[in-house]
Specification:
With 398 residues, the protein is an alpha+beta fold. Helix content is 65%, strand content 8%. The protein has a five-stranded mixed beta sheet, sandwiched between helices.
C-alpha cells in the first residue's frame, strides 16, 4: 500500500472512530443531543474524505460536489454542537450563510468557470469563517473552565489554518489546474495532517467536556434531595461551610434560618404519603424562590429545611422567615382538601464572629424548638452568642 493511500485513509478512519465514540456516548446520555450531532458531524466528514478518492457512478464533478456537501454539513454540525454545549445561542444564520456561500462559490468554479484553485479557496475560506464564528461565540465563556478555553484556542487555530495555511500553500505551490497529482501535493498533505490533528484535539476536548458533565451530574445527584430539588444535608453542609469561609474572609454577615413543617406526621397519617410529598415539594419551591441564587437552601431532614443567607443580619433573616411563613400559611397545596392549612415554624440565628456551621445550626435549632413549643406557625430568634472557645485565666497577684 503506497504512502498516499495510507494518508488518504487516515482522516476517514479517525473520523469514523470518533463518530462511533460520540454515538456510544449519546446512547448513554440521550438528554445531551449535541453528542448525536457530533457523531453525525464526524461520520459525514469521513464520507467526505472517502469521496475525495473514490468516484461515484455519477461522475467526478458531482462526486466532488457530494464530498464538499458532506464537509459543509459536517462543519455546520460541529460548530453548532460546540456552541450549544457551552450554553450559547447557536448562530444558525451565520453558519448557514458561510456554508451556503462556500458551496455556491464551489459550484460556480466547478460548473460555470472551472478553476480548482478557486474551489479550494472558496471552501477553505467558508470553513475558516465558521471556525472564527465559533471562537467569537466561545469568547464570553472562555474563562469559565479548561475545556472552554481550549476549544476557544482550537477554534482560532482552525480559522488560522483554513485561511493562512491555504493561502501560503496556494501562493507557494499553486495554482492547481487539475486533480492530476493533486492528492500528492503539499496542499493536500498539509490539509489532511492539520485536519487530523485538529479533529483529534477538538474531539478529545469534547470528550473531556462530556466526562465533566457526567461527573457534575453525579455530584448533583449525591448532594441533591430528589423530592424537594434542594441540597440534601450533606450538600448543604458542604456548600454552607464554603459560604461561611467566603463570608468570613470578606467580613460579610451571615444568618441561618431553620424551618420545620408543623404537624407533618399527622398530615401524612390522614392524607397519605403522596400528599406529604407534595407538601414538601411545595414548601421547598417557596423556600428556593425566596432564597434566590444568593442563598444556600437545603432539606436537612424529613420535614426540616435550612437556608443560609449571606449579607443578612438577624433582622433581615427574621424578615425573610416571616415572609416565607406568611406566604406559606396563606397558600394552598395542590392535592390537599380545600381548607387544609399547612404551616411551618422557624428558628433564626445570625453568625457571630467566625462561628462554625455546627454551633450556628445548634443555636437556630434551639430557636426553632421554642417556636414549636410556643404554638408553632411562628418565628423565634436566637440572641445567644456562641461559647468562647478559650478564656484566659485571670492573673494572680500577691
Amino acid at each position: 500500500m503506497d504512502t498516499g493511500l495510507l494518508i488518504a485513509l487516515l482522516n476517514p478512519t479517525i473520523a469514523l472512530a470518533l463518530g462511533a465514540a460520540f454515538l456510544v456516548l449519546w446512547s448513554y446520555q440521550r438528554h445531551r443531543p449535541y453528542l448525536a450531532v457530533l457523531a453525525l458531524s464526524y461520520s459525514l466528514s469521513a464520507v467526505g474524505f472517502l469521496l475525495q478518492y473514490f468516484t461515484l457512478p455519477i461522475g467526478m464533478p458531482l462526486t466532488k460536489l457530494v464530498s464538499n456537501i458532506c464537509f459543509s454539513i459536517a462543519g455546520c454540525c460541529l460548530a453548532g454542537a460546540i456552541v450549544h454545549r457551552y450554553g450559547r445561542k447557536v448562530p444558525y444564520v451565520g453558519i448557514g450563510a458561510l456554508a451556503c456561500g462556500g458551496l455556491a462559490s464551489f459550484c460556480w468554479f466547478l460548473f460555470i468557470a472551472p478553476d480548482l484553485t478557486w474551489r479550494i479557496l472558496a471552501m477553505n475560506f467558508a470553513f475558516g469563517g465558521i471556525s472564527l464564528l465559533v471562537a467569537a461565540e466561545l469568547r464570553p465563556v472562555r474563562n469559565s473552565g479548561p475545556t472552554e478555553k481550549i476549544l476557544f484556542v482550537l477554534s482560532l487555530l482552525s480559522g488560522v489554518n483554513f485561511f493562512v495555511r491555504t493561502l501560503v500553500v496556494v501562493i507557494a505551490h499553486g495554482p492547481f489546474t487539475s486533480y492530476d497529482g493533486f492528492y500528492g501535493s503539499s496542499y493536500w498533505t498539509t490539509a489532511l495532517l492539520s485536519h487530523a490533528l485538529l479533529s483529534l484535539l477538538i474531539a478529545l476536548c469534547l470528550f473531556s467536556a462530556a466526562a465533566l458533565d457526567v461527573l457534575k451530574a453525579l455530584k448533583t445527584e449525591t448532594f441533591t434531595d430528589p423530592l424537594s430539588g434542594l441540597l440534601n444535608r450533606r450538600g448543604f453542609e458542604e456548600r454552607g461551610m464554603l459560604l461561611l469561609r467566603h463570608c468570613a474572609s470578606a467580613r460579610f454577615p451571615v444568618a441561618l434560618v431553620l424551618a420545620d413543617l408543623d404537624h407533618f406526621k399527622a398530615l401524612n397519617d390522614v392524607h397519605g404519603h403522596g400528599a406529604g410529598d407534595r407538601v414538601i415539594a411545595d414548601f421547598a419551591a417557596k423556600l428556593r424562590s425566596a432564597a434566590g441564587a444568593r442563598g444556600v437552601a437545603g432539606r436537612i431532614g424529613g420535614e426540616e429545611f435550612a437556608v443560609l443567607l449571606p449579607l443578612s443580619d438577624l433582622a433581615a433573616a427574621r424578615l425573610f422567615a416571616e415572609a416565607v411563613r406568611t406566604v406559606y400559611s396563606a397558600g394552598h397545596v395542590d392535592g390537599l382538601p380545600q381548607g387544609t392549612k399547612v404551616t411551618a415554624s422557624f428558628g433564626v440565628a445570625a453568625r457571630s464572629g467566625d462561628e462554625a456551621l455546627e454551633p450556628l445550626m445548634r443555636r437556630a435549632d434551639d430557636a426553632l424548638y421554642k417556636a414549636k413549643k410556643n404554638g408553632r406557625d411562628s418565628v423565634r430568634l436566637s440572641y445567644e452568642r456562641p461559647e468562647t472557645a478559650f478564656l484566659p485565666e485571670p492573673l494572680k497577684t500577691g
